[in-house]
Amino acid sequence: MSAKNEKLTGKVAVVTGASKGIGAGIAKDLAKAGASVVVNYASSREGADKVVEEILAAGGAAKAVQADVSKAADIERLFAEAVAAFGQVDILVNNAGIYEWAALEEITEESFHRQFGLNVLGLLLTTREGVKHFPESGGSVINISSIAGSTALPGCSVYGATKASVDLITKVLAKELGPRGIRVNEIAPGMVETEGAAEFVKSDFGAQVVAQTPLGRIGTPADIAAAAVFLASEDASWMSGEAIYLSGGYR
Ligand code: NAP
Fold it and tell me: Where are the transmembrane segments (predicted)?
């Protein structure tokens, strides 16, 4: 966690897919900045509870809520529980996502629908429901995209297409929601050391990425979390429809 700064005191954040990886890092740093945080997870109750415990131990406020954010009914319950716990929602981080890389001949319909169902449809449904609970003064939506949405990586046509969709959705929703004072931005990370990416990090491809990264290393969840705190805060109050690329210079 980065240094305490309290820029988000009084705010409530919902972070999807926060039981591990990038989402867990973002949840902890938003809490450190003063926000009350809903730590969403799909199946890793233990992971989510651990994130909540860490936040509470550091003097913050947090609650774990199970919901599959590719399903509208679960999403509705997620925000109902968030509002019951903390009264409103000011910050939504659409982080939950899956990546199933496959060369053309290995693409399956199931994998296509799984990735688009969560990374794209889930993000839209979550945002549609989430902004209903934002105050009249507005709020901040932060989408987690990927450099895979704008870099042609072999094996990445489906996953990359989900993130290219997120890139466009971020810009479209910034226009639709701007008049309500809601800012919509995204972070597009390069390779980040997480449970989900562990195989990539260890692979030859992972070594190649590091070799081609000007800053000479892959990212950590804390690298991404710092940008999320910025986007959630008043420091970014004139920023909407934008992307922050965090990849150590790898593109
Ligand atoms: P991860 O380690 O695999 O963690 C994924 C998180 O998403 C977990 O908390 C998981 O919850 C949750 N999740 C999965 N399906 C869900 C669903 N249907 N509903 C709710 N939560 C769900 O992933 P990560 O590497 O941190 O990646 C997080 C985001 O960053 C993704 O959008 C990914 O595309 C993006 N990203 C990652 C990298 C990277 O190199 N790691 C790079 C660029 C972009 P459970 O544990 O309960 O299943």
Answer: none
Ligand 1: residues with CB < 6 A are 16-23, 40-44, 47, 68-70, 95-99, 118, 144, 146, 189, 191-192, 194-197
Pair 200, 219: CB distance under 8 Å: no
Q: Domain of 168: which CATH number?
A: 3.40.50.720
- Name the closest-CA residue to atom 31, ligand 1: 97
117 domain-assigned? yes
Number of domains the chain is built from: 1
pLDDT digits (tens, 9 = 90+) for 136-162: 999 999 999 999 999 999 999 999 999
CA of 136 to the centre of ligand 1 (A): 30
Asked if residue 39 is part of any domain, the answer here is yes
245 annotated active-site: no
Which residue has the least CA distance to atom 2 on ligand 1?
196
Secondary structure class of 29 (helix, strand, coil): helix
Rg of the Cα atoms in the chain: 17
Cβ neighbors of 167 (< 8 A, separation 6 or more) are 145, 149, 150, 186, 188, 243
pLDDT tens digit sequence for 105-142: 999 999 999 999 999 999 999 999 999 999 999 999 99
In one-letter notation, the amino acid at residue 22 is I
The atom of ligand 1 lying closest to the CA of 42 is 47
Is position 5 within any domain? no
Would the pLDDT of 2 be above 70? no
